[in-house]
Each structure stands twice: as structure tokens, then as C-alpha cells.
Design goal:
This protein is mainly α. The protein has one domain: dinb family like domain (Four Helix Bundle (Hemerythrin (Met), subunit A)), CATH 1.20.120. The protein is 66% helix and 4% strand. It contains six helices and two strands. A two-stranded antiparallel ribbon has the order 1-2. The relative contact order is 0.22.
Length: 160
């Protein structure tokens, strides 16, 4: 299996794992946080789902986002996340974003896989790394959902 196909399959697999674990968050715990500054399960899920679309755009555009004012950019990102309030919306956004990732990956040529994307801020990212970010990002945030579940004493291991 080539890197493009592997990245596509990994993105879908990690999305499915995230959505499976998120589906076990009880309704009364969707907005619960372990502290005032922590993110809730719904906020983590919204963040994870919305980033699939962002990764797809970076792959499709062959460039990293130009962030001129980090504070403004983060405020806009946070507002988008807070606006997502239901499981159904999370799942729809995540599936649409992952379909966008899939389509963007299919546009890459073998030569483009070996390139690096300049951030404009003194660092670069190999395209091969960006290709794996949708999967890695979802897997990392699945761990956050797992942690929240342990906070309310859900010790079950969800495998299916």
C-alpha cells in the first residue's frame, strides 16, 4: 500500500475510533469538564472534527495557513468549536472533513509527497507528515475522551 492509500485509510480508521469512543459519552456528560479551564467532550469532539477540514485544505492548497495574528486566529477557531453543540453535528462535520481529506490526498503526485511546506514563520512541514496528521490528530484527541471517561468512573474499554 502506498503512502497516499495508507494515509486515507488511517484517517478513516482514526475518525471511526474517535466517533466510537465519543458515542459512549453520556448525554449528561457532553458539556461536563473536570475543571473550569478544561474542555468538555463536545468541545474536544468539535475541535477534532473541524480540524479534518483544515488538514484537507492544507493538503489541497499545498501550503500551511498564513497566521498573521495568532490571537485572532485562535479566537475564530474557538468560536467555531463552541458553535458545535450536538453529537450529530460533530459526526457530520467529522465525516465531511475526512471525505475532504480523502479527496485532497488523491490529488497529490508522488513528487509532491516529497516536498516540504513553508510556514512563513521560520519552520517547515514535510508533506508526508501533513498527510498523517488527520489520523494522528484524531487518535490523540481520542485519548482525551478516554481520560474524561475515567473522570466519571467509566472504566470500560470500548472496542466495538
Amino acid at each position: 500500500m502506498d503512502l497516499i492509500e495508507f494515509s486515507k485509510q488511517s484517517a478513516v480508521s482514526s475518525m471511526e475510533m474517535f466517533l466510537r469512543n465519543f458515542s459512549h459519552v453520556p448525554d449528561d456528560r457532553l458539556h461536563w469538564t473536570p475543571s473550569q479551564t478544561a474542555k468538555s467532550a463536545i468541545r474536544i469532539a468539535a475541535h477534532t472534527a473541524l480540524y479534518a477540514r483544515r488538514f484537507a485544505q492544507m493538503i489541497r492548497d499545498r501550503r500551511l495557513p498564513a497566521i498573521e495574528n495568532l490571537g485572532d486566529w485562535l479566537a475564530e477557531r474557538d468560536a467555531e468549536e463552541v458553535a458545535v453543540t450536538t453529537r450529530e453535528e460533530v459526526e457530520r462535520l467529522f465525516r465531511e472533513g475526512t471525505a475532504d481529506v480523502w479527496a485532497a490526498l488523491e490529488t497529490l503526485t508522488p513528487e509532491e509527497i516529497g516536498t516540504s511546506l513553508d510556514s512563513g514563520q521560520g519552520w517547515s512541514m514535510p508533506m508526508s507528515h501533513l498527510m498523517g496528521l488527520p489520523s494522528l490528530h484524531a487518535a490523540l484527541h481520542t485519548g482525551q475522551i478516554d481520560f474524561l471517561q475515567t473522570c466519571w468512573d467509566d472504566q470500560h474499554v470500548y472496542v466495538g
